[in-house]
Amino acid sequence: MEFQHSQASHCESGVMSAMLRHHGLPLSEPMTFGLSSALSFAYLPIIKINGLPLVAYRMPPKAIIKGLQKPLGLKMRFETFGNPAAGVTRLNELLDQGKLVGLQTSVFWLPYLPEDLRFHFNAHNVLAFGREASGDYRLSDPVAETVVTCPPADLQRARFAKGALAPKGLLYYPVGTPQTPDWQKVLPAAITKTTRIMLDAPLPIIGVRGIRWLAKAIEKLDTGADAAHSKMFIGQVVRMQEEIGTGGGGFRFIYASFLQEAADLLGRPALGELAEQLIDIGDEWREFALATARMIRDRDPLYPPKLADKLRAIADREQAFFRDLRRAA
Amino acid sequence: MLDSEVPQEGNSTLGGHRKAMYARGADGKLHIVQSAGWEVEEIVTKQAVDDLLRLTEEARQRVLAGQTSPLEYHMYRVRMDVPLLAQASGIWQWRIRRHFRPAIFARLSPALLATYADAMGLSVEQLKKVD
User: Who among B17, B30, B88 is closest to A144 (CB)?
Assistant: First the structure.
């Protein structure tokens, strides 16, 4: 079957949506995201990226690929390689068999991406679906508008980049055929899992409490001598929320889209109404991003407590939202 | 966000690409809309890129003044920092910092230079000088 590329907002859910469609199970990107309970929030001050703490609006990398196995009765095969040459040989072998192969890559080494977005982020997912006569790989990068090609040397670097979340040449593909699940069973389970992550996480830096923890950290930022660092800190939060392929509002819109689909599949209009609430919450995240960007550019004076208050308001709304969602599921 | 509200103001950091966003259509359902960019994203991306450019330029000036080695300049130029270069090259951080001293850098073995060059995707010749 000829492979069909379609643009997605997030790499991992986009890869899985395209892969499942190729294997005969058309699931939308939001459905792969919601069904694997990928929505989250985490403020991880111990993990530093260029000296700034990590803020994530979703579950860790590979959670979507792995999380879809159980609801879809799908078995994914994962292979990593100690030696790059073996990884290249194996990829070529699978492509020669006509397989569609998922790859974990570092954004920095992918030449077709815009220069300004190429940072050392090691958990970017792409699909390889063939090779040109020149030896260049034919890739479907879900965040790109069309299919792209990538020279072998660059792809090898991207697959074997070192550092945090190093891909170690990871490639993955399904074994067997995915089945349409029993929606009445898998959807409530997936939604309940997300509410547990957002409301009941044992660590105060995960879920709704994580948002409040971040608010506290932002409130304490220095506006005097260290203002430049404070601006880098708040800028990083917004980059994770908007720039890194989240579909807007830190994945809140994509999850709202999943809830709308779930409402139709289950015949439960209550979920559709909750989706409306989540769209409003996503808009509030966008307002937070706008207020932050204005302070970074000195259009508004740098006043972190104002941003902290906005985050606390969002945390309150998300807490109420996920409680309602738990009841509805 | 309504699909008519999806920002189309352009974002130079996207290099002409358009990204997929989810927004609400007239039927109330969310669907994918392509966005040419939002200024907010441009501001925060540029902020991160500019900070790396500043570190690169400062290192370049220090190389020219004989205060650091080209290794530090290239490290920032490829958007790394010392912890990341240490992971990418397998060389300890304190050793990398030591190699920032021009006199010590000048005496590095070809093998060590090749290790650094490989980790940063450069040739050894490129690694030895600044642009």
Answer: B17
